[in-house]
Amino acid sequence: MTTKTSGLGLFWQNVVSLPSSLRESFARRSAPTSDRARSQSIFANIFLHIHSTRVHPHALRLSYTWGLGVASAALFFILTVTGVLLMIYYKPSTELAYQSIKDLHYVVPTGRFIRNIHRWAAQLMVITVLLHMARVFYTGSYKKPREFNWVIGLGLFVLTLALSFTGYLLPWDQLAYWAITIGANIAASPTELTDAIGITHWFNIGAFQKELLLGASEVGEDALIRFYVLHVMILPILLAIGMSAHIWRVRKDGGLSRPGRHTTAAGKGVGASQPVPQTPSSSPTKTYGLMCVVKGKTPATDQNLDETVPSWPYLLRAELLVLMVFTFFSLVLAYFFDAPLKELANPSVPENPAKAPWYFLGLQEMVSYSAFIGGVVVPAVAMIGLALIPYLDREREQVGVWFSGAVGRVVAWRSLVFGAIAAVAMVAIPVNFGWLRNWFPGIPQLWIILINPGTILTALYVLWSVYELKRSGSTRMAAIALFTCFLVGFAILTTVGTVFRGPNWDFYWWPSQWPTH
Amino acid sequence: MPGRLDPKPIPRRDFLGLAGLWSAAIAIVGSVAGMAQLPKPRVLPEAAGTVKVGPATAYPAGTVKVFTDHRIRVIATDQGVAAMSLICTHLGCVVAEGPDGFHCPCHGSRFDAQGRVLGGPAPRALHWLPISRAADGSLLVDTKGDVPPGTFYEV
Predict the structure, then answer these.
(1) Do the Cβ atoms of B96 and A434 come within 8 Å?
(2) What SS3 class is residue A506?
């Protein structure tokens, strides 16, 4: 009898404590009340442990990071959520895709808003990724030990652009159809070169690439499915994996870069600008006990804990703020500006002018000189050049300082002016005087391909960088010169493509001067 | 002394480990190579390239007909009938006809009335297409073919 009542009593106790025991099993610890407990929460939580438990205040300075990396990640999060929602209604078929976007826009509850957010977050992400890359470059943060993380970052940049590209193909409107056509033909453009030297018959890499992209010899159902799979599966998964590795490496390399952090010849780390002896203090314990089983240096143990602040709350709060700010931007833009949807794809007539989204218009300008050089070679050379920067510039001074100090600032300004003048000239000359074909009508195609404004601009930028290298004797200054030139060249070509190109890709000072028809 | 003819015996564990490693490597390479074949279509799903453009009698000298769906333009002169593709040889946009020839709306390539390149990035002239006659007497244009510019089919 007693056993029965006590059993019931015990059961009743368990029922009463059900909320708290559920909560305990879920969180495994009570809400942290001290910095030490907060650090341990970060350390022990699968979602938080990508952060280090403590962070240097330099990494939190707005004027240092501008929160751009976190912003890109936040926008990717927004894009994933809205993208999955759009997948509920989108139908990847040439017959139905356009109608399903119209349904989303006019019929589905909140469909228009969600699509607009998806579109604006994508545009913002392109901007934040670009700016993040510029921030990392100009603060010298690609330097050892972060060289390969810079390369991973470049991969993420390419993936971001690829996601944008595959994304705007899906509505199957005029923009989508002609973008696929042009994109696939850029993939086929090595044929230009193999034709010019007469080896296409034996080696037709261009046709192979095009067939692989389209799954057919012409743009149609197969192409749409392929780009859909890329957009919703392959590229996001690659981006998520790359992003995880990118962030994880930042943490393993001792947090964000900051001045005076490079290791001396003796292999000992130094703290701030002057070495500060590290004393075991009352600061939170941070052990790498498990790592004792391996030999060699353990990550980030050379930091003086006393000059760091706990990640919870400072870092987490800053991250949340960035997420909210960019959510807010996306919401406001999505509320006021609808994502465009052009006419249904029409394979017999492209729009005139047929323009890509703004971030590809610099590329379109380059492609309007030569498909192969502008669409394949120059972007590839630029990417390889960017990837090699940390390996060619191995100077270890002034990491974590904008422009590596006053000298770099001057170099950047000078390169900005040179890069701008060169880019404007390379657009202005063909616009005003024509190019090789106008001057020598019978010229072989190989010359047209090789000597076009895009190649000359690239060559000018490389020469300028070599000049800065000789002048300053510093690889870092040469890198600043080259990067600045490419950035300003990209900006100017993008502006030209966006504002000054009209019907037939002719030059107009203003869209109001476009011929009417 | 161990050598090629008298090798040192491999310890059993080393052998098993290496065998495992190599079989895994071969399996990974083999399966990746197998999967990589999948996206390359063996049969291309597409319509036939030949287009019926009507009976030869519909093409007295001086006729110009544009078939927008097939992106071709058929003309007739005293020399015969000829067909030209309207797909820009640069990146595949459809060229528009103007007073002085053809121009591409996407990247500014320009062609003269015969399809020769006048300017812009186009790497070659617009394709002229072979024409033949079907059994019922109507003309057939092969949109996948290619003949030298100035080739006319004598009717």
Answers:
(1) no
(2) coil
- For residue A370, what are its two tokens? 């030569």
Q: For residue A439, give how far its alpha carbon lies from the nearest alpha carbon of chain B (Å).
A: 10
Q: Please answer whether residues A136 and A246 qualify as being in contact, where contact means their C-beta atoms are separated by less than 8 angstroms.
A: no
pLDDT along chain A (517 residues), means of 10: 72 94 86 86 85 86 92 97 97 95 95 96 96 95 92 97 94 92 90 84 88 88 95 97 94 83 45 44 48 50 66 91 96 94 90 87 90 91 94 88 92 96 94 86 83 93 95 94 95 93 87 77
Contact A351 B68 (CB under 8 A): no
Residue numbers in A near B40 (CB within 8 A): 208, 211-212
Which chain A residues are within 8 Å of B69, Cβ to Cβ? 348
CB of A28 closer than 8 Å to CB of A47:
no
- pLDDT value at residue A447: 86
How many angstroms separate the CA atoms of A491 and A500, rounded? 13
- Give the count of beta carbons closer than 10 Å to the beta carbon of residue B48: 8
CB of A369 less than 8 A from some CB of B: yes
CB distance A158 to A166 below 8 Å: no
With residue B94 as reference, give the H or E element that holds it. none
* Predicted local confidence at residue B100, as pLDDT: 84
Tell me if A348 and B94 make a contact (CB, 8 A cut-off). Answer: yes
Give the H/E segment covering residue B129.
strand B128-129
Cβ-nearest to B92 among A185, A195, A435: A185
Q: Nearest CA to CA, how far is A378 from chain B (Å)? A: 15
Task: Note whether A222 contacts B45, CB cutoff 8 Å.
Answer: yes
Distance of alpha carbon A255 from alpha carbon A263, whole angstroms: 15
The one-letter amino acid at B100: D
Residue B125, chain A, CB below 8 Å: the answer is no
Within the 376-405 window of chain A, which residues sit less than 8 Å (CB to CB) from chain B?
A: none
Please state, in angstroms and as integers, the Cα–Cα distance from residue A95 to each residue in A228, B48, B59, following that order: 14, 21, 36
Return the amino acid letter for A177: Y
pLDDT score, position A283: 46
Give, as one character, the DSSP assignment of residue B100.
T
DSSP A426-438: HHHHHHHH--HHH
Name chain B contacts of A181, Cβ cutoff 8 Å: 91-93
Q: How far is CA A79 from the centre of its chain?
A: 14
